[in-house]
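Researcher: Good morning. I'm working through a list of sequences from a screen, and I'd like to move beyond sequence-only analysis. For each chain I'm collecting a predicted structure so we can compare shapes side by side. This is the next one on the list. No need for commentary yet; just the structure.
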Amino acid sequence: EDLVKNTGNILGYNLSYFGRNYIGSQFSTSRLFITNLSAGLSNLISLDSFGGELDMNFSYLHRDEVSFGVNFVYYYGKKESEYKLYIPFKFQTIAFVSMSF
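Model: Good morning. Structure tokens for this chain:
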């Protein structure tokens, strides 16, 4: 996973964590309670400096072309973890609309 660091107005990649060890897991379902509702849970953990990214998402498929959804992302770890050093917030919510043609 590429880590992005905000340096003023310039957005650059942080290469100091290239080649480190990570482990990830992901669980998802495509028919949660009703046919068009899907949910997923994923976790990416750094094994070199304890830290990680926990992501939970829900999406609803409307008429096979439009999908509405929301992602909840939580970053955790030690102070020296890249998830604490390079990500300026601990929790974020992302809402999205996706259209397919």
